[in-house]
Amino acid sequence: MGNRKTRRLLLLLSLFGTLTACNQQALRPTYPDPSPAASATDEAEALAATDPDPAQPVDEQPGVAGANSSVDARGQATCGECAEVNPEPTADTGPQDLWDRIRAGYALPRDSHSAVVAHERWLKGNQAYLNRVTERARPYLYYIVEKIEARDMPLELALLPVVESAYQPFAYSHGRAAGIWQFVPGTGRHYGLKQNWWYDGRRDIAASTDAALEYLASLHDRFNGDWLHAIAAYNCGEGNVAKAIRRNRRAGKPTSFWHLKLPRETRSYVPRLIAVANTIGTPEAYRLSLPSVANEPYLGPVDVNSQIDMALAADLAGVSLEELYRLNPGFNRWATDPAGPHTLLLPLEKHEAFVKGLESLPPEKRIQWERHRIRSGETLSRIALRYHTTVDVLKQINGIRGSRIRAGHSLIVPVATKSIKEYSLSADSRLRAVQAQRRRGSRTTYVVRPGDSLWHIARRYRVSTKQLARWNGMAPRDTLHPGQKLAIWQKPGLKKTVLTAQTSSPAVTGETRRRIRYTVKHGESLWRISRRFNVSVGSLRKWNGLKKGQYLQPGQRLKLYVDITRQAEST
Questions:
Q1: Cis bond leading into 87, ω under 30°?
Q2: Under CATH, which number does the domain 437-490 receive?
């Protein structure tokens, strides 16, 4: 009799456990991001805006939700229901929810610093933000956690893209950082992230994750195993952190992160990560509900071994073209890079159908081809622009060594299988979406001419370079190209400034124009100095009597005429 009762009890407990596990199953990845063409990390910047002013008490900070509420700075829940909300995983089955697995891998030191508390309070009042970030992270998170665990690194690092980009795969900041890990071009290239017209490895989920973890591991070694120093250096550069440590040592002060004099953004950056980790660690303590994410693989790489049209790849995999771009945001155009990489990340359940379909298509049929008859006056660059490809590709396919082509001859040209507008998350389509966003005032389309800079165009239309860059999905320091089209929005009744030869000369200084002397540093060029001060190279040469091709020397003094109201935008 006793044995029967015991078996019944065990059966009931087993059924209860099964039902509980079923209720915790995660939803399939959805893509609710309302602005796929976002040109900046708006939501990550919104979280950054909670940075408390050191001169003010935390409770007086603007924009911090629930500033007077009392919350344990470490996010440690003490309520009796917490064990039910986040049950301890058993040794047999492991955690069912990926968040539990991440929590179990926490290893960063905690601190109840006022900056951490301020960010926690902001998060406490923004359940919708947490929901959006979770849905964006959902398809990538398991993959990233696996990579971090393989390196035996703290699993809080899986939350770093929340701080960097709010897990927006197409995020692009005013500092020219791209992707969920927000690599700037130079650092990306240093860690092997290829960047060209076809492909940007900084947005490639797999490649950028490997690069970010390699970079963080290097910084961890550089700072003798101090993760907070390493994370701070990821944000502002290892030189700045090392300099701050040396400064404190000389002054006999502590050298922990919390005692270092670092850039304001970095002083907020590390506390934001800790606040996000605390909030996800015990969401119930902040009266938040964390959407479940299944602790199971979703994505996996498939080697295509050749260039392929993205629309064709989507059809073979049985996914939407938009989903394919979101899983592979490194590809800029309608097809993958002809020179590689030739790997696509796809849902595991789609691999078999994709591989089977791919085997029936030889490489030459994975791209459509057209024969273009060259007309009088046409150039390779004009033909490449028309067919959404590059001059190098046309040369390679058609065996052209130089740049001369003859009217009447024909070229073989790769073409997209669908209308270019249907590739809605390609770089061109994302740019069109940003430029088409309705803003205040009237819109003007400006075609860039040789010698133009964002500063000169902004001045001509009486807008700031930061506005002009934002309207066109750019960063203020991005290079312009002749023929490039820019969207400009002006207030009603405001006329553009007529620029003459005099407006860039020393004679016209105005209220905000100042003459400064600049000492050339080692390795600097006219181009770099012109970008720093938002002036043209031509103007620098003219002001200093420099001939074209003349090199600068370290210690050389240059004369510049700058608009002081524009300089904050170039830093």
A1: no
A2: 3.10.350.10
Q: What is the 3-state secondary structure (H, E, C) of 23-91?
A: HCCCCCCCCCCCCCCCCCCHHHHHHHCCCCCCCCCHHHCCCCCCCCCCCCCCCCCCCCCHHHHCCCCCC
**How many other C-beta atoms are found inside a 10 Å radius of the C-beta of residue 24?**
15
Distance CA(181)–CA(263), nearest Å, equals 20
CB within 8 A of 267, min separation 6: which ones?
51, 115
Question: Domain locations in the chain?
Answer: 38-48+93-286, 299-365, 368-420, 437-490, 505-570
pLDDT digit string, tens, across residues 483-531:
888 999 887 655 555 443 333 333 333 444 567 788 888 778 888 888 7
CATH architecture of 505-570: Roll (3.10)
> For residue 36, which amino acid is it?
P
Cα Rg, the chain, nearest whole Å: 27
Phi, psi of 199 (to 5 degrees): -150, 140
Is the domain covering 38-48+93-286 a CATH 1.10.530.10 domain?
yes
d(CA 533, CA 562): 7
Amino acid at position 158, single letter: A
Whole-prediction pTM: 0.67
* Active site amino acids: 164
Helix ranges, 82-159 (H): 82-85, 98-104, 114-124, 127-150
Q: Which helix (H) or strand (E) holds 15?
A: helix 2-23
Alpha helices in 174-296 (DSSP H): 185-190, 205-222, 227-236, 238-250, 264-281
Residue type, 464: S
- 396's CB contacts (< 8 A; 6+ apart) are 338
Give pLDDT tens digits for 201-237: 999 999 999 999 999 999 999 999 999 999 999 999 9
Contacts of 500 (CB under 8 A, 6+ apart): none
Measured torsion, CA atoms of residues 218, 222, 226, 229, in degrees rounded to the nearest 10: -90
